[in-house]
């Protein structure tokens, strides 16, 4: 009989051991890494961490106390080694849903605050990698199988359009810009061409900043974008427009992260106080002047009315995207659809805490015909899981910061490899 390797592997693979440890993320703060051993090898995963965190996100468990100013993750590590590990040992890693549901049950809270989303998610990711290996599949192909389900829905494998954050503001930078992210979105056909264009635009912007403001302007923020000493969105957009001179088809995306400038029940930015109507006019002016294709979180996370007004007024021209508004949470996504509050979703696995729930959130948002943007976090690691996730679920866009810094490029470089594989 001819030996069918595929079948032998998928039937026999079992989780043998799981070990977690505390490592540091790109901001130099603790996070969790997991090593999961199966019959097919060792699978490693680590989780990112946000700075502008939505109220409705699954909760990270932090140790408190003096070490790392309270940000240690040894409790989360202990929860993996002592509680989750023993319960999933011996299970088939291809049972993603079953294992994720078991962890949700073990946690027992609505926001994963008992075991910590930073304990549950890295296990979920490592299980997914091990599941893919047990079926001899690339991770993105395996995720696309899970996404399509049974009976399978149609899904064409393609690399999403990347959004590169080249000017940083808000909580990610030591400057006075209130809007958090100024992203360029090249429109070439291939991902590799978009990456090349972004790299050239980024290097061009560096020269422009140096010429205009001197060397201090080329220092970078948390996501690798420049953090020049400017305070108005229009200044940032004018500088980017200069850098786009030879790249006329490139679009711009903004993550306003407006919850950060909702202070004392008012929108306070650029040295002025705005009413909801005033803020909407401010955005309208920007989209008239610059080739903006999406606005993420233009209003504060609980300002449903602000989101509704802007979606009604501008969604025939641009995509209104919810991040803090939705927190990758099906309940919030359903509410936003009911209220017609946005037409696109940022999807961040650590906002919800398991891969199964992340995939469900994408499915739900897509069922409303929304655009999907898979996203990194501002405090990230070199784990490139989200690249495979973005391709596997057929996302429209991916954002992973600037075309610079290791933890940002880990994702983009992985997409280069996936594109090569898909093309061939
Ligand atoms: P965060 O920023 O990771 O600090 O939350 C990213 C974003 O808001 O999209
Ligand atoms: Zn955001």
Structure description:
With 424 residues, the chain is an alpha/beta fold. The chain has 14 helices and 14 strands. The strands form three sheets. An eight-stranded mixed beta barrel has the order 4-5-6-10-11-12-13-14, surrounded by six helices. It has a three-stranded antiparallel sheet with strand order 1-2-3, covered by helices on one side. The protein has a three-stranded antiparallel sheet with strand order 7-8-9. A hairpin with a 2-residue loop joins strand 8 (266-269) and strand 9. Helix 2 (74-88) packs across helix 3 and helix 2 packs across helix 4. The chain starts with a helix and ends with a helix. Residues 50-53, 255, 257, 323, 346, 375, 377-378 line the site of 2-phosphoglycolic acid. Zinc ion binds at residues 255, 257, 296-297, 323, 346.
Topology summary:
Layout: H1 5-12, E1 15-24, E2 30-38, E3 41-46, H2 74-88, H3 96-107, H4 117-134, H5 139-148, E4 161-168, E5 181-185, H6 191-213, H7 233-243, E6 251-255, E7 262-263, E8 266-269, E9 272-274, H8 276-289, E10 292-296, H9 304-314, E11 319-322, H10 330-338, E12 344-347, H11 349-352, H12 355-367, E13 371-375, H13 385-392, E14 397-399, H14 406-423
The structure holds 2-phosphoglycolic acid and zinc ion.
Zinc ion binds next to loops.
């Amino acid at each position: 009989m001819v030996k069918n390797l595929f079948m032998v592997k998928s039937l026999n693979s079992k989780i043998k051991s799981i070990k977690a440890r505390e490592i540091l993320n790109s901001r130099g703060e603790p996070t969790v890494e997991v090593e999961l051993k199966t019959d097919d090898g060792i699978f490693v995963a680590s989780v990112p961490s946000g700075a502008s965190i939505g109220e409705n996100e699954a909760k990270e468990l932090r140790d408190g106390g003096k070490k790392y100013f309270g940000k240690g993750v040894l409790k989360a590590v202990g929860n993996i080694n002592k509680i989750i590990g023993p319960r999933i040992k011996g299970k088939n890693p291809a049972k993603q849903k079953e294992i994720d549901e078991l962890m949700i049950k073990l946690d027992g809270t609505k926001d994963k605050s008992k075991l910590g989303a930073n304990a549950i998610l890295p296990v979920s990711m490592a299980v997914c990698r091990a599941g893919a290996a047990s079926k001899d599949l690339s991770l993105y192909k395996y995720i696309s199988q899970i996404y399509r389900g049974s009976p399978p829905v149609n899904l064409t494998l393609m690399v999403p359009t990347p959004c590169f954050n080249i000017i940083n503001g808000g909580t990610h930078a030591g400057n006075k810009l209130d809007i958090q992210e100024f992203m360029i979105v090249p429109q070439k056909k291939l991902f590799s061409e978009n990456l090349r264009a972004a790299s050239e635009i980024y290097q061009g912007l560096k020269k422009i900043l140096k010429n205009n403001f001197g060397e201090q302007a080329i220092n970078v923020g948390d996501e690798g974008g420049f953090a020049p000493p400017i305070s108005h969105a229009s200044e940032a957009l004018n500088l980017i427009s200069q850098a786009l001179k030879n790249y006329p088809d490139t679009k711009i995306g903004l993550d306003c992260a407006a919850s950060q400038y909702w202070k004392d029940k008012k929108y306070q930015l650029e040295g002025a106080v705005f009413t909801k109507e005033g803020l909407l006019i401010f955005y309208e002016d920007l989209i008239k002047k610059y080739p903006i294709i999406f606005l993420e979180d233009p209003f504060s996370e609980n300002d449903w009315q602000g989101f509704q007004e802007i979606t009604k007024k501008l969604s025939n021209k641009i995509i209104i995207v919810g991040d803090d508004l939705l927190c990758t949470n099906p309940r919030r996504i359903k509410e936003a659809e009911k209220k017609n509050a946005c037409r696109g979703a940022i999807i961040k696995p650590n906002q919800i805490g398991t891969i199964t729930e992340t995939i469900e959130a994408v499915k739900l948002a897509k069922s409303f015909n929304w655009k999907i943007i898979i996203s990194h976090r501002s405090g990230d690691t070199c784990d490139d899981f989200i690249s495979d996730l973005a391709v596997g679920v057929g996302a429209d866009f991916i954002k992973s910061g600037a075309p610079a810094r290791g933890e940002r490029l880990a994702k983009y470089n992985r997409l280069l490899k996936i594109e090569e594989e898909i093309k061939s």
